[in-house]
Amino acid sequence: MLLTNANLATMDGENPYGLIPDGNIVLRNDRIEWVGPNDGLPGIYSSEQREDLDGRLVTPALIDCHTHIVHGGNRAIEFEMRLNGASYEEVARAGGGIVSTVTATREADLDSLIASALPRLDTLISEGVTTIEIKSGYGLDVETELRMLRAARALEKLRPVRVRTSFLGAHAVPKEYQGRPDDYINDVCIQALRTAHEERLVDAVDGFCEGIAFTPQQIERVFEVAKSLGIPIKLHAEQLSNIGGVQLAAKYGAMSVDHIEYANEADVMALAESGGTAVLLPGAFYTLHETQHPPLEHLRKYNVPIALATDANPGSSPLTSLLLTMNMACTLFRMTPLEALTSATRNAASALGLNDCGIIRAGLRADLAIWNVEHPAELAYRMGFNPLHRRIFGGEL
Prior knowledge:
Layout: E1 2-9, E2 19-28, E3 31-37, E4 50-52, E5 57-60, E6 62-64, H1 76-83, H2 88-93, H3 98-107, H4 110-125, E7 129-135, H5 142-158, E8 162-170, H6 181-198, E9 204-209, H7 216-229, E10 234-237, H8 245-251, E11 256-259, H9 265-274, E12 277-280, H10 282-287, H11 296-301, E13 306-308, H12 322-333, H13 337-343, H14 346-351, E14 368-371, H15 378-381, E15 388-392
Parallel strand pairs: 1-4, 1-5, 6-7, 7-8, 8-9, 9-10, 10-11, 11-12, 12-13
Antiparallel strand pairs: 1-2, 2-3, 5-14, 14-15
Helix pairs in contact: 4-5, 5-6, 6-7, 8-9, 12-13
């Protein structure tokens, strides 16, 4: 198939957005075979089936590289309680917080987890997303962690989307292990990780390294197991304080370190040296009324790739719009529209260890988004507006 009469933002090359006005793309099976300006189209493609895009913008399909869309229940009542003045302690005593999500997730069977995740996934797909990362972490027991990962794998069979799974057993300490986080790591987290790996349910291992979660030393024990199993590393770090999570992630060559509002220049230097990607999550920043901004200038200074993601979860970021995430990154973090689109395509692929998508280039997957806009800056500019015209997944319109 020949896509013709398009304004291409390839996110590849030296000029901003890798723009090719009046461009063409040749698709064969699930790959891009040729891309370039109309006047450079080889004659062998002149007879191909054509799809005239009437000047529309084409970008790489979007990639949401950090989500928690598989879970039970929601936290809307807790949201209302907080807005009516309830304290964190009062919410917790009423059964709110992560405990409520863990309870609801443990009570949900596989079919229920899949059914509740599908509308969230469909919303992301409708905005041009073709690849999504999904984490476990709301089971906090072996059985439920595995069930969450099985649900995530099932979504890939039910929708035209690519799913990458992350084991996040080191997310929080469940009630039955309160005061015994080391026992939880030994008895539950590591056991669940090994079983999930045996069942081929894990593409990466994640953890929450924070004062309210796990120490670097506790996370390192999980990372050592992941390393022995040959599983890539990711980490939630320096979201609420700085306790050394970025340095730990860099030591293990993490694909990405996420949140990082409290990361300092030394942390960014370590991340640059390790080759990891910084994943910024403005949805959580917005929801939690945070004031500490991620170290954007340091990330730019040391050329650390920056990715964006929704962090879609029931508590701190009930957000299922990657387009709105891009706008938030520009308005809250002062990123540019070019940085935002790069962060939701090319750099998001890097955060997941993928090298076959995220840019428009011959030989890569034909995962594309066609937009009813003239300039790529419009994608980050608007709020609550979805200009997607069509989505192409693996060469399929």
